[in-house]
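Archive entry: two folds, one per protein. Generate the first.
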Amino acid sequence: MTRTARWGWVITLVTLTGVAGVLAFLLSVGTTSERGFFERHYHWLFWVNVAVAAVLTLVILVAAVRLVLRVRRGRFGSRLLLKLAGIFALVGVVPGLMIYAVSYQFVNRSIETWFDVKLASALEAGLNLGRGTLDAMVADLGNRTRDAAEQFADAGAPQLLALERLRDKLGVRTVALVGGNGQILLESGGDTSQLTPDRPSRALLDKARGSVVTQLEGLEDEAQALQGGARIRALALLPNTELRLGLGERYLMVVQRVPATILGNALAVQAANSEYQQRALERVGLRRMYLGTLTLVLILAVFAALLLAVTLGNQLARPLLMLADGVRQVAQGDLSVRPVLASRDELGGLTRSFDDMTGQLADAREQVQRSVAELESARTHLQTILDNLTAGVLVFDAAGALETVNPGATRILRLPLSAYVGRPLTEVPGLAEFAAALDARFEQHLGPDPAERDMDRELWQESFELQLDPKQNPLTLLVRGAPLPQSARLVVFDDISE
């Protein structure tokens, strides 16, 4: 896979993961927000999440199949990739499943507690309390209006002054004298925002003929009611004490505002009770919506974790696989230049260090090969020189075994010395005494006692006589010896018999 294609996959996976996270967040907000945009569009949002989850599933399946095929084909590093992907997947999936299990139980039980019998009873009691409070205020105003009507009929003061006193005594907003046709005859107080007096309806006047009548008004618009639009109207028939014909029926009308605090609490309890009753009817669907949302969010989170596990596993395993492949090729003798990771982290530095080490090994091997070639050339040159020397040359190793013999030594001693290479000189027939004499001379020259050592010369020279064949004259040899490195010994001799 090229660098461009690899970065394309990374960007695609990150984009899908981000989209899944945003959709999951919107889906969770849609289930917990008030009735509004998200709740109205919950269904299409849910199916968009399902589509994204399907795409993530397809991508994960493709990545898993490719990884399994690599393992079956035995490609180098596939097991490491599988192990890293499994580790990252466990790190992301196991905590998610634990959180899901706890959240599932919590949501399921929380929804049940929302619709508890005690909660329903409390809401019903609060609603009844609000209604009872308003009913008590309405009844109290009706009673006070009836008593005020009787007192107003007996009062001898002017009617306007009597209405002012009555309004102050009752503590209400408006006290008015109403005719039989509903026309406002006289009014004390009133609403200054209205140009015309607030007249009672005909139906209310008909009911007031029998007894005092009360009515709670202004509750149609909650916002206006909370701003002072809610009021209690009481209407009572005034007794006719003047015994005059044509005076007609007159009514005492009292209007009192409902306190905003009491009305707000009553409306809030009523709205909460209505919402509770509606939610209670949708309890099964609500539970399915919450649990479905929780499950889908878990799936999105798990799939995103798996994708990140595969991506991170590839990113971490790539330099390690490069190093492992390089080590394997180096072990096979291939010291060519290795690819270097372009990153600036520790793994990139490790690949660069390995490349430097491989280059140094290649240089060292090339130098060793040159040295070996030079050594072989020198040995060949030396062997040529030894083969052409008239003098005999013998080289012994540290154990005293014969290591090198030139043709001159074979010619002078007239013995097949080359056949005894790797064996002591004492095993050559007729040379046991000569070998012992050489050992004694070397021991004298390099003996353990410094007083006995011949330190004047590094080389020693001495003549020896050898009787190799009784029928022939003895050989007189001029022998020169010298120690070599690593306890080796060199012996050079000439035939000086003549």
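Generate the second and append.
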Amino acid sequence: SATLRQRQAQRLQPWAHKLRWHDALPERIDGVIVANEVLDAMPVQLLHWDGARWLERGVAAAGDGALAWQDRQTPLTPPLEVAQPEQHFTPGYVTEIHPQQCAFIATLAERLQRGAAFCIDYGFPEAEYYHPQRRGGTLMCHRAHRADADPLVDVGAKDITAHVNFTAIALAAQDAGMEVLGYTSQARFLFNCGLLAMLQSASLATRTHARRLVDEHEMGELFKVIGFARGCSFDAVGFAEGDRSHTL
């Protein structure tokens, strides 16, 4: 985003001599990567269970020029990410798989020679993501602080997003040679990193903003943090308490 890059440059002007903006990942990375709401912005593939087989769901032009959902009539082999047995899904069940997210993690692991990476996003472990009751998937659209579930309306005018399957992300990282440092809620991660101590001397406005990051009904529980390391030992204090890696 050129607009956000300009705003960042203005906000961070005192440290401009230390900063660079990249249009692509460097060939070699030695350091710490923080990816805040990066994974959820990547394209996903939609799958539809018709009661007997998995079909890939796509978009086709309707007769009146509008857009409509259309399933490929070639059945798919159920992906590994869909962990629940097929008989647990009801006909009409729609969900997503995330090949581009996993490919991004693999590329990140290839470039990260020595350091750590932390991905912050909203999502679930695989068992929650593909729960039989989540029959509509997680695909959502956002515009002007409003959300809806129909990406075929006002195409190009809305952000389209989907939750992250953190189990798939962890497996992709391990397969690419990275160590999983931990996985926890955003609230627990920030508390472990000393947020409460920092807020003791903060203004009322800052404390109010911080509550949105940690309250369970806001971003504190829905958002998760997963960490990886490669080529070094790393004391990941953010996962010191409340690590949920066992749920992945």
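Annotation attached to the second fold: The first helix runs from residue 2 to 11. The helical segments are 2-11, 99-111, 126-129, 166-175, 186-192, 195-199, 204-214.
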